[in-house]
């Protein structure tokens, strides 16, 4: 499988974990040292992977169970050796997010090292 296909698989696993409120799924796609940072309507938010995973898990019923809109679109994916920059849009919790992932290939597995997010108005 190509790097782009492996990255797409990671992005899809990330979104699936959001849709199903799966904390272990979140942890499986992020590097343990990753940070999740961005702006929600109430201001700047900064989280560790564990804090983000707990937030995702707290969404009950899950977006999938609640019948929430599903939308995931990879806008760009630039690979440079064992690093990649990925920009995507997804719907989550009634909002549309633009995310920028910095990713690393560690031991053959692509992981999200940083997530910057923006809520579209």
* Secondary-structure element order, N to C: HHEEHEEEE
Bin the strand percentage.
over 45%
Uncertain segments: none
Second CATH tier, the architecture: Roll
> Major sheet: size, sense and barrel closure?
6 strands, mixed
Q: How would you sum up this structure, described in words?
A:
This protein has 121 residues and is α+β, with helices and mostly antiparallel strands. It has one domain (3-62, 69-119): Nuclear Transport Factor 2, Chain: A (Roll). Helix content is 28%, strand content 49%. It has three helices and six strands, in the order H-H-E-E-H-E-E-E-E. It has helices at 3-19, 23-29, 49-58, and strands at 30-40, 43-48, 72-80, 83-92, 95-106, 109-119. It has a six-stranded mixed β-sheet. Strand 4 and strand 5 form a beta hairpin. The termini are far apart.
């Amino acid at each position: 499988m190509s790097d782009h296909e492996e990255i797409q698989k990671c992005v899809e696993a990330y979104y699936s974990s959001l849709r199903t409120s799966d904390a272990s799924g979140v942890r499986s796609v992020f590097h343990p040292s990753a940070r999740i940072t961005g702006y929600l309507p109430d201001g700047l938010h900064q989280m560790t992977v564990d804090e983000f995973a707990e937030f995702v898990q707290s969404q009950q019923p899950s977006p999938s169970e609640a019948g929430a809109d599903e939308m995931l679109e990879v806008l760009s994916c630039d690979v440079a050796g064992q690093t990649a920059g990925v920009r995507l849009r997804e719907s989550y919790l009634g909002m549309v997010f633009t995310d920028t992932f910095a990713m690393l290939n560690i031991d053959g597995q692509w992981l999200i090292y940083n997530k910057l997010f923006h809520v579209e108005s």
